[in-house]
Write a structure and sequence with these properties.
This protein is an alpha+beta fold. Among the domains are: about 200 residues, 2-enoyl-CoA Hydratase, Chain A, domain 1; about 120 residues, no CATH class. The chain is about 30% helix and about 10% strand. α15 packs across α20. The longest helix has 20 residues. The radius of gyration is 26 Å and the shape is globular. One of its GO terms (biological process) is proteolysis. Keywords: Signal. One of its GO terms (molecular function) is serine-type peptidase activity. This is CPAF-like PDZ domain-containing protein.
Amino acid sequence: MHSNFQAIASGLVVILATGVLGASEDPCTEISNSYARESSSQKRVHVPAQLAVDCLTSMPFDSEKGVSFIDEYSKYLEFQSDLELLANPPPSSLSNRVDLRAGLQSIRSYASRGLYSNQFHFDSDLMDLINSANDGHLLITPCSSTAFTFMASDLVLVSISVDGVSSPQVYTQHDAKLLAAGLNDISPVTYINGVGAAALIEYQSRFQRLQDPDARYNMMLSNLPYNGQGVSNSEPFAAETVWRETSSYYLTFANQSSQSYDVLAVVTAPGGFSYKSGSDLFEGLCGTTTSPTTSPSGTPSTSASASAPAVPSSTSTPPPTTYPTPVMREEHNLVVGYYPDEPGLEDVAVLSVPTFETADATGLDALAPFAEIAQYFVGNATLDGKKRIIVDVQNNGGGVVDSGFALFSVFFPNETLYSATRFRAHDALDFMGTIFNGINPDNVSETIQEGLSSSGLVVQLMDNPNQESTFGNWNDFFGPYDADGIPSTSLVAEFNFGVEANPSTNPINTDGLGGDLNSMTPPFAPEDIIVLTDGRCSSTCTIFTDHMISKGVKTVAMGGRPSSNPMQAIGGIKGSQVEVLSNIDTGSQLAVSLLNGSITAGTPLLTTENMTRFEKVMPIPLENFPLPLAAGDRNSINYRNTYTKTDETTPTQFVYELATCHLFYTAQTLVNPAVTWAQAANATWGSGSCVGGIQAGNSIGSQSFDDNVSSNSENDSVSSPGTHTALGLLLALGSGMD
């Protein structure tokens, strides 16, 4: 669906609304007092959105620090894998082109001229720029953004069709459930703040970190009230970069009734909120820099193998709400198997895979049971007479790469797995690789050896995609080589699967080395497998799904914008590795330390000329940043692009790839996920229909781009700073701001 919102917004005069405060109390003081009263009695303290905005916009701004921040952050952004292609994408890209480096310089110029009146607007422009890349691995969380999260928590919308094929309409989730219960006199939402409901949702979704517009549209809705782990998806209107600076949403229904939903700001400031002024808030959140925590390695520990995993005990996580009774499940619902009794599914098994996050910072270590339970369920399904299987990866945001390859090897075992990635080749990466490969690992400590290994830049630890050879030296690997305009390294595998696979901890059936993953032949024919998505499949999920598609597996994509066109199965980032900035910081400082050591020893690893360049391009420690970033994993880049056997130059996230079948959600699918499975099965294997018809030959890269579906903008997504005000105006149309 197309709209003229951007043109409309840019042609109107923005009138900023101002909140009305009781007496002359400072807005930050008012929030501080509310927090002191309420924080002990409730988990989340919230205040009116406009009050929070008034507090945030009372923060001062230090132009010199802002300029310096851009200069230092830009060095980290150079590690983003696809900068050049984002700025000049192929015609098949459905997202606006965005030149991130030029955008940063525009913000820098704005800051250097003293045109930012507060830290919040500077940070907002940074977030809008970075999020405009629609990359789930690319994230920035500046200091002021940690104070509040804006949300209209009572506003939960869905997009449902009468029959799964005809054009859907927007409803509140509450009303849609009434439709599912048999009530007919239920009105859809026609306007939000005076703008067409579907058009506004599509426009608002533009900063969602997904690369396909249908996936972004789904992200704004609660079409899947509970995901396959049983986690509620009840606050889709909680993205601060999307709903910021809007005080309320005024819904108009087809029957001319209306309802208003207030936007609230949930206090999320680290350590609570005791700030009495904008200056206090700036000093507390932005005045001091702390070193973000390095991401854990996630190395799994040894776990016992099991040929017939037991159903988890009653003390484990409960089965997912609203889903059928599972036949088998991993105790955290990471993978759940069903034999649904919905009509049309009598000979169909369903494997729900809501996540590939089999290891995390809490100590979760479930890769082995994840893979083993998946294989045991799939194998037993064939013994129990199931002829077909649906793999449900709706809302799967990815996770541990090994998990994706392990699950693929369950369906297509005993093969040499293919993996091809590239780093973006730039000076800082070249210096790090030159230094890391220029030292003798036998002459350094075990800690440094571990740092070198975890960097992924040591040539002797690399493997070509063929899994049979490595590279002669760093220069052989680094190049740089041109890959669709991106200066890139040579193709390199994620890892050597034969080495990585471990029968106890990392069971991946590659060349028969899967341990308990010991099948030798595929349990189902490719034409008897459906991968079911809602377009939000990202990261490791895309690696799994693309490998399945390469074998001829069919895909069904649910939801999306209300159009009669097909839809892509995969709408999330297809990059193979996310890297948090703190890990880049660690690698950079290791390079500095090793270089200094070589200079002291009289055997410098770089020439004098290169050392001068080294000082200019290497990232400084995050703890030395002029303005802090949020701690933990809330700042990251896409470190590696992924490629296929048939296209070694175009990153897969820029390849247009239609699902075999596109369907819409219905009222019944909201309350019974098995209805979604039956829809997909009937449309693919039965007499049902697909939106836009069945798409044949859906192997990756096989479709030509249909510019009637959408097209990338002729303009940069973020052309100038200070544009955050246009969004507030758009949403104020028809209702006004408080």
